[in-house]
Design brief:
The chain is an all-alpha fold. It has 11 helices and no strands.
Length: 234
């Protein structure tokens, strides 16, 4: 009986044919497709058709890789920095762009929340944003607090939104509310039944925009109050 011919060994990618950008891009693709728990150095090496040890020429370990993934995702946020927008418009542009980027990478939302949102591009972004805020009358401390308040609201909303509109179809969310309210006696819960149309909308863009407007309006009142207090103490 003739022996089956052995499969020739698969040729791996030649050394020096990778780049740090390719490694990070492949990690992002893997996470987007299979989830963050699927990311491991052996799995990534298989994706890139290289040896595991080759990866360590570009990243220190999985943690370093995740940090680089975070930096890549938040780099080049599509914020329009043209002209000289008012502090509130600049803050709104930043938050809207941040939410949009998180929705583009829904499997990475938890990663973005847990890790530092920092990169050279992010440094430029925050410098621009703080400049607009302080130029608009905020103190340095106030500018940082305003920026943080709006950013944290956006991160939290995006996490909530992804879970209800991206992880599962939004129709499931609506159905859950419809069935839940149907089990409640209208005479005992008249307000909930009156709000039946609006309760499922908590994870929609319209809700995010409304909340961001209220937050920025409140920040504006705080800035004006602080400005009056400063003038009155002179």
């Amino acid at each position: 009986m003739a022996r089956a011919r052995a499969e020739p060994p698969r040729k791996r990618r030649p050394r020096k044919s990778l780049s740090a950008e390719q490694v990070v891009d492949a990690a992002i693709t893997l996470i987007q497709r299979d989830g963050i728990d699927a990311l491991s150095m052996p799995r990534l090496a298989a994706e890139l058709d290289c040896g595991v040890m080759t990866l360590y020429g570009y990243v220190q370990n999985r943690e370093d890789l995740l940090s680089q993934v975070t930096s890549r995702v938040i780099s080049d946020l599509p914020v329009d920095r043209s002209g000289h927008p008012s502090w509130d418009e600049a803050l709104r542009r930043y938050c809207v762009a941040l939410r949009q980027r998180m929705l583009e990478y829904p499997t990475l939302v938890q990663l973005l929340i847990k890790r530092r949102l920092w990169s050279p591009d992010m440094a430029d972004m925050v410098e621009w944003l703080l400049t607009r805020l302080t130029s608009g009358g905020w103190s340095t401390e106030g500018a940082v607090r305003a920026y943080r308040a709006a950013q944290i609201y956006t991160l939290g909303f995006a996490e909530y939104e992804v879970e209800r509109t991206r992880t599962h179809p939004y129709a499931e969310h609506e159905t859950w509310w419809r069935h839940t309210l149907a089990d409640l006696p209208p005479e005992q819960y008249p307000q909930l039944h009156a709000a039946a149309e609006y309760l499922p909308q908590g994870a929609l863009e319209s809700q995010y925009s409304w909340g961001l407007d209220q937050l920025i309006d409140g920040l504006g009142r705080e800035r004006r109050r602080n400005t009056k207090g400063t003038k009155g103490s002179r």
